[in-house]
Specification:
rod-shaped; 174 residues; mainly alpha; single chain; 81% helix
């Protein structure tokens, strides 16, 4: 049976699988504010004590405090990344299942001749999830950079700690 595009769109939007997909997407949108998360990430990253360590005033206590703060902030950033990965997987799984359902259920669409046209037609139903997934991908990439920077700072902190220990050990032995 050949499906008229307008009728088909209304039928798809009214079907149970698509409604379930929209509920899942709305649930994630209700829990997830990309701009608030981006600000929280920046705030954590910019509040790190390692950003304020100056070479001429290296104090072992400051190094320890900075390292402890970095470990704590890194943990929070990793937790954010894990949550984003879970959101992304949920969105991807839900949209993939509904996309497959639509493509198998509606094989004959008026005005759609090639498989590429069918795919493009069906993809229109998933613009919201595609935008949300793009936001999540962007945030995950930023988190990766922040985490890598903290890891890199951790290696430098260890080097500085070792140097401070060597200096104090040498001064005590003299």
């Amino acid at each position: 049976m050949r499906h008229d595009r307008t009728e088909l769109e209304e039928e798809i939007i009214a079907c149970k699988p698509y409604k379930r997909y929209k509920r899942i997407l709305q649930g994630i949108k209700d829990q997830f504010d990309p701009e608030a998360l981006r600000e929280e990430m920046r705030g954590l990253f910019q509040a790190r004590l390692t950003r304020d360590i100056r070479p001429k005033k290296v104090d072992p206590k400051v190094l320890l405090d900075a390292n402890a703060v970095d470990v704590s902030y890194r943990s929070k950033l990793v937790d954010m990344r894990v949550n984003l990965a879970e959101y992304r997987k949920t969105i991807t799984d839900a949209s993939s299942a509904v996309r497959k359902w639509i493509l198998s259920e509606y094989t004959d669409i008026a005005g759609v001749k090639t498989s590429e046209q069918r795919k493009n037609y069906v993809d229109r139903f998933f613009r919201g999830s595609n935008r949300l997934t793009a936001d999540i991908d962007n945030l995950m990439e930023q988190l990766e950079w922040y985490i890598k920077d903290i890891d890199s700072a951790g290696f430098r902190m260890k080097d500085m700690k070792d140097l401070v220990e060597m200096i104090y050990t040498r001064e005590r032995s003299i």
